Amino acid sequence: MRKITCISDWAKDDLAYHEFVTALEGYAKMPRHLSVNRVDSETSTIHTGFLVEQIVYTEERLGVPSERIIFANTDPRSANSASESAKYGAEFMIAKLASGLYVCGPNSGYSLSFIKPKIESISRYVNFETTTVSRSRDLFSRVIAHLADYMEDEMDLEEVHGGTVLDRPMGKCILHVDNFGNVITSITQEEALEKHKFGDYVRVNIGSETHEAKLVTHRFGGMIGEVVMYPGSKGHPDNPYMEIAVWHESTHHKINKKIPFIESSPGDEMHMR
Fold this sequence. Notes:
This protein is α/β, with parallel strands linked by helices.
């Protein structure tokens, strides 16, 4: 069976996740061989899109992509909130990447945007006619289980144009805040070094907060307590996303917890100059 990675804003809810896995086991041909892991997302399709991209990068570089399914389901339904269609949520899509990896889930906001250039084909699953609050448990689990069982050729899929997936957001924003409080930005190393060089100090605006950050080559390239911006470990290995951090010597495992911009969330706009 293919392995399944679930990325969702509900994945942190143990009950919701347990019910989803139970439904997968019920539909799987060999439930004992089912392998599912979860990655928590904020209720932000930008955050979900980044998480999908990062896991795809890692799987394609170090794993076996043809044996992996990524199920991405963060669907705030905000685009349809004032209409009757809100109860149906975004349309379920199955994207096959050039590497053979499958990414599926509601085509909501930017959830699929970060891996759009990697999509070889994308299809609509047309048999979801029932409305339910728990679509992952009651509807999507069956399709995902079929994908895990290599049954994609037996499924009723309708190929659609890749333009149904939004392009990734153009503005600069926060993509992720890790468990140490390090801020992963959408600025790549190449973009940061277009107008600046390592050793320069740059002004970084995040929401209402402004910080002077030193451009350094790695997280510990500055002085103790200094705000630094550096090429991180996320994004394309040859052109990683820039991260912002502060190194506190006495709290190595609680980096950045005392500085204001750590309260920022994925999707927050930012500027660097």
